[in-house]
Amino acid sequence: FEHAKRPKRLPTVLTKNEVQSVLDRLSGTYALMAGLMYGGGMRLMECVRLRVKDVEFETGQIIIRDGKGQKDRRTVLPRSYADRLKEHIASVKRLFDADKKSGMADVEIWPALLRKYPNIGSEWGWQYVFPAAKYSRDPRTGRVRRHHINERYLQQLVKKAAGDAGITKRVTTHALRHSFATHLLEAGYDIRTVQELLGHSDVSTTMIYTHVLNRPGMSVKSPADV
Question: Which pTM does this prediction carry?
Fold first, then answer.
């Protein structure tokens, strides 16, 4: 028997103008998150689970921990969002200080790391950059603490923003990552660099974005236009 082959689908890619029209229709924390996803090529949960210690303003980088395939990598911190991110983290620090004063400063940590460092969950650097507004109870441990923001709401807002902008493509948060990769290739960056920023194990995965370099109209003239 032969295994059924998955159909090859081209990713949904937005033009720069379409990306901007989506971002313009978002506001507050969710606009910042969407901007970082597009500007750094992050997956949805990589953005949602981002920790304070993994944002490096001096080097202009964001460290992605435990990404897909349990891999760490570095990506770009877009300069256009750096000041806004600094202001956001300052407001998160005030929230953290209030939690600490009330004895509620705690965050989810990998069990193996928590066994080695029992108090690490109450350290500032390990807090989520995008924390939830309210506390929640961990169903596995029963501990009440501040979790990260709900990713589903961002997905809904991005989809709505695309609809409001009149974009007929099927736009998801992952389309921002696809657009990041495609726009880098269009700008002339080599595919190995894009592969590293996206965290792909195999360059063949990244090769799907080269469809933009071979699309009709770039080098092929339609016979209807001759």
Answer: 0.86
